[in-house]
Amino acid sequence: MAVYLLQRLGQALLVLLVMSLLVFAGVYAIGDPMAIMIPPDASQADAARLAASLGLDQPLWRQYLVFLQQAAGGKLGVSFAFQVPAVTLILERLPATLELAIAATLLALLLGIPLGLLAGLRPKSFPGRAIMAGSILGFSLPTFWVGLLLIMLFSVQLGWLPASGRGATLELLGVPVSFLTLDGLQHLLMPALNLALFKLALVTRLVRAGTREALSLDYVRFARAKGLTEARVIGVHVLRNILIPVVTVVGLEFGSLVAFAVVTETIFAWPGMGKLLIDSINVLDRPVIVAYLCVTVLLFVTINLAVDLACAALDPRVRLGGAEQ
Amino acid sequence: MNAPPAALPGLLPRFARDGVALAALALLALLIAAAVLAPWIAPQNPYDLAQLDLLDGRLPPGALAADGRSVLLGTDDQGRDILSAILYGMRTSLLAGTLSTLGALALGLLLGLGAAWFRGWTEAIIMRAADLQLSFPSILIALVLLALLGQGLDKIIIALIAVQWAYYARTARAAALAEREKDYISAARALGLKPLRIILAHLLPNCLPPMTVVATVQIAAAISLEATLSFLGLGLPITEPSLGLLIANGYAYLLSGKYWISFFPGLALLGLIVCINLVADRLRDLLDPRRMAG
User: ipTM of this model?
Assistant: First the structure.
């Protein structure tokens, strides 16, 4: 177990290093940040001084070494646009993105599991077919267009929900969150639903497939033969078995929710780190782009590791670091 | 995955047994035809600034333009006819989706077959690269690539290939690993054929069927991703608007109730993606024997 954990950590560090190199080399190729930062009437000497103060006059490999050295200490450069450390900027926005992603995951699970069960238990019925058709729509609908439709319907036509921002926030353990106030919840609902849609379709399909498979297995027949109520058979025996793949997939997909939050945050002007990334790309704020990617990669590596470990804990048949398949 | 190569002549009647899939196929054919024929059937050329009249800006659907013709789906802020813009936009979207899928299919096949054939470190490098790519969401990789490359149809196709090749590489490798142990490959080797010839002439045709279904689904995914990236302002430049960019254009007017600038291009995009997905779903059911029972 300890060996496996060390191996995985080593792999994770390697991935981080490769990504940082790719990202740094790549991001260096984006335009010339000097062109944006220098006032048009600045003299040659002013420009050189600015370049020197940002370290942009150094050769590329030197900039990368400096970057690595500082990254190891948790410093990923100072934002050109905000004059604030890029990591601080990202970490300030991280809670908003995480709140959105967690809310979306909860929505996907709370709606997807019952819908999937219903469709799995009654596959030929009208609701069963309608749910499956809906899930195809959920896979097909482009997230950003659904977001626009939601705004059109609930904000413009009906005027029920606010179209942008985070609303009133309350401090929870020093972190501002929206879900504790009514206003914040109203602001959270639409973006979370928008982000959840794709995962909702995924969870529904997974649960449906799992239910259909479980119903034909011996242990379910046995439970029924024993005279257990249908509610107990489904609610305890079937559900527990289909939850393992659902938890795995939802866990692994959490990272992609954080990435896709870029789109949702842009539409709903949700002040998370995805919106910050788009804004930073538009003004070539290189340190912020690099910091976003480093934080995201770190998040991904952590999630993958955590899901692997959780699976092993849930299912004794999963052997960690087992033989090659 | 050893799907018997379904007899193509018999495929269409079997396909047609599912009414929804048939309707989707018909609508898809109609959309593709409309996109291809756009220069001849569109009321105006939305890229030709000379044909745009700012006075026609933001007309609602069905209103009359300055020159007396009626604009069926309204106009955008530049006075661009939305219907024409959709027809031209679908061309761009379909082109980006199809070309990138074909490119990714070719690259993935090449790398996957190469990995399965040569094994050793070639395989290790290719498959670790595929693992690395697949462990990050496609949108993130595409965002970063486009931020580096800049805007343009060629660049978005490169980015879309980069996020898709790994699926094909994995599928191709798995199929090729199973195939290479079979007698006909041993026979080809015994004949002293060159590896490239064996890979292209013998391995490739037998690994292709499982990949075509993946490719159909991926075209829809690629179109959707392209639209998303263009919506974020990172895909295509404003001079060659795809559906995503059209939707982004109308976004600013949504809150003032001018829904049509975003709504109709979105509807076209949705139609395209849903139809492709339904057709692909049906194809998968027909071609994969394991699914027939269900």
Answer: 0.75
